[in-house]
Amino acid sequence: FLAKKVAKTVAKQAAKQGAKYVVNKQME
Q1: What gap in Å lies between CA 9 and CA 15, rounded to an integer?
Q2: Sign of the C-alpha dihedral computed for residues 8, 11, 13 and 19 taken in this order
Q3: What pTM does this model have?
């Protein structure tokens, strides 16, 4: 089903954003 595919893509993007946020926090 399409919605499941979209949800997976959104989750992947969120994880990427979250990782970037964590790295930025550690850099400070």
Answers
A1: 10
A2: negative
A3: 0.58
Residue ranges in the chain assigned as alpha helix (H): 2-27
How far apart, in Å, are the Cα atoms of 25 and each of 2, 4, 12? 35, 31, 20
Distance CA 27, CA 9 (A): 27
Give the residue extent of every domain in the chain.
1-27
| Predicted confidence (pLDDT) per residue in 16-27, tens digit | 999 999 999 988
Which H helix or E strand runs over 1?
none
Q: Please give the structure tokens belonging to residue 11.
A: 């989750």
